[in-house]
Amino acid sequence: MAHSKENNDDDNRNDDGYLGTVRPSVSSEYYTRGSAELATESALTLAKIQHSVNVHMSPLNHANSIALYPPHTLQRLRLTEKNERLVIVLVGLPGRGKSFIARKLQNFLTWRGSECKVFNVGKYRRTAAAGACDANFFDSKNAAAARMRQEAASAALRDMLRWLDNEEEGASGGVSAASANALRKKDRVGIYDATNSTKDRRDWILRECTDKTFRAGKPTGVVFVESICDDKDLLQENYMTKVNGSPDYIGMDKEEAMADILKRASLYEEAYETIDDDSQSYIKMYNLSSKILVNHIYGRMAKSIVPALMAWNIGTRPVFICRAGQTMDVVERETRRRSMARSESLGPNGTAFRDALFEHMREECLDFVNRRKMVGSFIPNLSTGTGTSINGMRKSGMSCMSLASLSSPQNQAQEDDIYVGIDGVTPLPFPCHIMSSTMPRARQTVEWKDMPYPVQMLSNLNPLDKGDFTGQELEDIAIEHPGWYQQLVEDPFHTRFPGGECYGDLTSRLESVVVDIEQQVGPVLVVSHVSILQVLVAYFRGTPVESCTSIALPLNTVLKFTPSKGGGWQESQFRVVSLSPSNCDLKSMDNGMYCHNPSDNDGMLYGTPKQVLCKEGTSPDVLISPLPNPPIWGDHVRV
């Protein structure tokens, strides 16, 4: 009978394994929130938290803080604690883009507010060898060369550790006490750029950076970033870039240089060991970020550096930035005695700029598309690629077409009908990923007539929040709050508006915007405001973000940034609308006004924008000297 009872029970069980008479009821919230049972410690969760992690990864900054936490949480804390010192060790064979990654990391981390410096072992090696070295220098059987390579690696690592500890010679020379204190408060990131292709070399770097005796009281995190590339076409392109730009091949015949670098890579491959120690923190990049593998990466590495590494790509695409169109000109504003309001709409000058901007973007973006057609056998599907570019703007089934079919007469008419608007019907003349602030004047600048382009409106792109001083002009603030105003004059980047922001806060909210721009594969247009664009321009120029408040950004002007092969950006500027001096872009300059000279060579390449200072009502070529005031323009207009 017992056997029969068991059979009956089995027969009565439903598909979930419960007996039909005792099945618990399932709340609808289970499917949206999951189990409501409180999470408790278990042997499994403790084992995961204590997962084998070496102490060298991220030691705690304060020994007495260890007592605050049970032992089982310390390993995870060592991974998440923010250190004042971080070493990023690049790993990879020649031609894998390590120096490209190093330069991008340096610019990004410096822009974010860290002190960052690249230590390229190749530079030390050329100094030790008194010049360039051919492939035989990298043969593991060449004992003399091996000693010289180790000496160069040791010198670079030694200099990096001294720099991380702020002990390099002349570290404080010519720097004020206030500036020196500010520098010491910043975390420092050293990037060790070399092949570091063997386990022994990487273990040596770890020991040198985390030695408990020689590095006592100097906790240093170490993260490896390995660049792996097995795409033959990409490797060939990388090798050619190295042949054309590396100091090792200056004056050498290109065929001879290519043969040498191929031999050098082959010699390294013989001894190459990929990272496989899962007790270490590492990131593996495949074919320059087409795939990324991370291991023991937490904290700022996870929230900042990993997204940036995933975003960077070697494709060329233009990035355009400009200010929102003008609302009312100076004469009208003075007549009405009104300061600028956040809710203002475009005025006549602003609508003229909006229309001219559309024509300029059409010309630029179509030129981009046509050049891509000429160098490849397909039109890139700009609605996919990174997953964010121009979402929904390309008709399905049109992602890949041969050049022959595109050039045929029957398809000529279709070329202008590839991209469609957010209504899914209206054809758009060119592809572009558009980002703007939520301010009406910015949104209206890209509301092109009968062209329903999708616009990504982001509060991240809104102007600097001036807190209690919102709506006030700098001249009024200087009179009513002279103490605060003096701080602004002395340190315009870090002085925070009461109840608002400082320029230093903007890098935090613009970080995701920079990553989004970097990951695009097609043209990008950003329409925002002076304070925001000053910070963005500092990123693209690779200039100190602390000095961004002095960057001039004229109205009715489009800045274009195009990637260079080395990881930087080339800049050009275009004045798309020329206005009379009375309607020029005026800024508070005490007795003077700032005006971009319409007679400047529009569209010419230059590193520093050309401008003159003019008094209101005078010709732009009448120069004056402004009285002392902070180099901060914001959206202020003197009334």
TrEMBL record:
InterPro entries: 6Pfruct_kin (IPR003094), 6Phosfructo_kin (IPR013079), His_Pase_superF_clade-1 (IPR013078), His_PPase_superfam (IPR029033), P-loop_NTPase (IPR027417). Residues 81-311 form the 6-phosphofructo-2-kinase domain. Residues 1-21 are annotated as: Disordered. Coiled coil: none annotated. Pfam families: 6PF2K (PF01591), His_Phos_1 (PF00300). Gene3D superfamilies: P-loop containing nucleotide triphosphate hydrolases (3.40.50.300), Phosphoglycerate mutase-like (3.40.50.1240). Keywords: ATP-binding, Nucleotide-binding. The keyword Transcription does not apply. This is 6-phosphofructo-2-kinase domain-containing protein. It comes from Cyclostephanos tholiformis.
